[in-house]
Amino acid sequence: MKTIDIYEALRANSYPGRGIIIGKSADGKSAVTAYFIMGRSVNSRNRVFTETEDGIKTEAADPSKLSDPHLIIYSPVRVLGNKTIVTNGDQTDTIYELMDKQQTFEQSLRTRVYEDDAPNYTPRISGIMHVGEGKYNYAMHIIKSADGDPDCVERFTYSYTDPINGVGHFIHTYMGDGSPLPSFEGEPEKISVPNDINEFTEGLWNALNEDNKVSLFVRFIDIATGKAETKIVNKFSKV
Question: Does 1.10.287.950 match the CATH number of domain 3-234?
Answer without folding.
Answer: no
